[in-house]
Design a protein that fits this description.
Blueprint: E1 2-3, E2 6-7, E3 16-17, E4 20-22, H1 27-35, E5 41-44, E6 60-63, E7 70-74, E8 79-82, H2 88-95, E9 100-101, H3 113-118, H4 126-129, E10 136-138, E11 143-145, E12 147-148
Parallel strand pairs: 4-6, 5-6
Antiparallel strand pairs: 1-2, 2-3, 7-8, 8-11, 9-12, 10-11
This protein binds flavin-adenine dinucleotide.
Flavin-adenine dinucleotide binds near residues 10, 53 and 116.
Length: about 150
């Protein structure tokens, strides 16, 4: 969340000043954006982290908001391939009507796939399903499993 030029995480502490936020339109453009600045750059999903893991004091944030494309879904295996800025909300909107659900969901659906992987989020079924990372096949152009709703 941006507040008077400072960014906060969901926990609203600390408030941290940044040099700016980059909004590349694609992964290819992300490389150019990172190389165009001389400070450290941190990816940022939806800023739903409670701690400071989505903050980069005196550096740049790189928004993944525009990495929001679904790439492929295989209904035989339940394998979804999408970009890292796709939110769990967007996945649920598309796939619940088709009978599919995420194997692991945190307490909010307003997180990105990239944020869910980076923090290896867990849900209430942690003891059975493990964390989000247990369902990742590979992270390049993110691939992971959905589960069939019963
Ligand atoms: C109401 C609420 C309930 C929650 N409940 C739970 C819960 O039950 N279980 C749980 O585990 N967590 C829970 N959380 C925490 C939340 O799920 C995690 O903090 C999640 O990582 C936030 O995702 P985000 O997209 O907002 O990422 P951000 O907060 O923006 O970023 C988190 C980290 O991911 C990195 N990152 C983001 N995108 C990328 C990318 N594309 N590539 C590389 N790194 C990236 C960032 O650099 C940062 O280090 C909850 C949060 C809220 C607000």
């Amino acid at each position: 969340m941006k507040n008077n030029g400072n960014y906060e995480s969901w926990g609203r502490y600390p408030k941290v000043s940044h040099l700016g936020e980059l909004f590349p339109h694609s992964l290819d453009k992300a490389r150019d954006a990172i190389e165009s600045v001389s400070s450290l750059v941190l990816p940022r999903g939806m800023g739903r982290s409670y701690g400071d893991s989505c903050l980069n004091e005196n550096g740049y944030l790189l928004s993944t908001k525009l990495f929001n494309r679904f790439i492929n879904f295989n209904p035989e295996t339940g394998t979804l391939r999408c970009e890292s800025g796709v939110s769990l909300d967007e996945i649920l909107k598309v796939f619940v009507p088709k009978g599919w659900f995420l194997p692991v969901t945190p307490g909010t659906k307003f997180v990105t796939v990239g944020g869910a992987i980076a923090n290896d989020v867990h849900g209430k079924n942690h003891h059975k399903a493990g964390s989000f990372g247990s369902h990742i096949i590979r992270t390049k152009r993110t691939n992971f499993y959905l589960c069939k709703m019963t």
